[in-house]
Amino acid sequence: xxxEDSRLLRLYPxxxxxxxxxxxxxxxxDAIAAAGRTARLRExxxxxxxxxxxxxxxxxxxxxxxxxxxxxxxxxxxxxxHALMVALWIATGMYFSDPLWRFGHGKVELAASALMALTAxxxxxxxxxxxxxxxxxxxxxxxxxxxxxPTAAVMPGLLHVALVVALILGCPPxxxxxxxxxxxxxxxxxxxxxVPLVGLRAVAPALMLGQTTWTLLLLAGALLVAVAAQGGRDxxxxxxxxxxxxxxxxxxxxxxxVGQYLIWIAMTYPLAYGLGLLLHRLRxxxxxxx
Length: 290
What we know:
Layout: H1 3-9, H2 14-32, H3 37-56, H4 63-92, H5 106-124, H6 128-148, H7 155-169, H8 180-203, H9 211-230, H10 235-248, H11 260-282
C-alpha cells in the first residue's frame, strides 16, 4: 500500500484500524486495481466518508446512522416540496410565507429549487447517488447566491440548506432509501406539502398557513402513523425527529418569533406519539378470530 492509501486508512480511529485495518486495505486495493482516475477518486471519497461515519458513530450499525437512514426520505420529500413552492412563487407571484429560501436573486433561488426538486425525483426513482449529487449542487448554488448577496438576512437560508444537504449525505450508503416504501414516503411528503398549501392559497388568498408550520404538522402525522404501526420501538421515530431539525431549529436565527417552531414541536409531537401508542395498543392481537 502506498503512502496516499495509508493516509486514507489513518482517517479511521486507531482501535477500528487495529480490528479491521487489513480487511479495509485489502478491499480498497481490490476496488482500485486497474481502476481509472475517476474511479480511484470515487473509491477514496467513499473510504473517507466511511471513516468519518465511523468516527461520528453514524454507520448503519449505530443508532445515529439508522436514524439518518430513516430521516432521508422525509428530508428529501419535504425539501423538494419547499423548493417547488419557491419555484411557483417566483414563476407566478403566488406568495407563500417561507423566509428560508430568499437570497435576493430570483434566478439563483429558482436554480437551487430546481436542483432540490430533481433531488427528490432521483430519490423517488431509486437513483440515490444522483440524488446526493443534485443535493450537493443545490447547496453550491445556494452558497453562490449568498456570495452574490452577502447580508446577514440570507444566512439562515444558507444554514438551513446546508443542514438539509448534510442530512441527505449523512445517510449510510447501505441504508439508502431506495426501497419502494422509502420512495413512496418521499413522494408522499412532497405532494402532501405542496397540494394543500397551493389549494388553500388559491381558494382563500387571505388565509395564510406557513410552510414550516404545515411541514411540522405533516411530520407529526408521520410520527403518529409510525408509532401506531410499530409501537414506538422503531428507528423511524428517531428519523422523523432528525428530519424535523432543518425546519425547527435554524429558522430561529432569522425569524421574528424565536423558538416558535420548537414550541410547536413540544406541543404536537408528544400528542402524536401518545395517540399513536394508543392506536397501537387498540389494534387486535389475534389473527383469524371472528
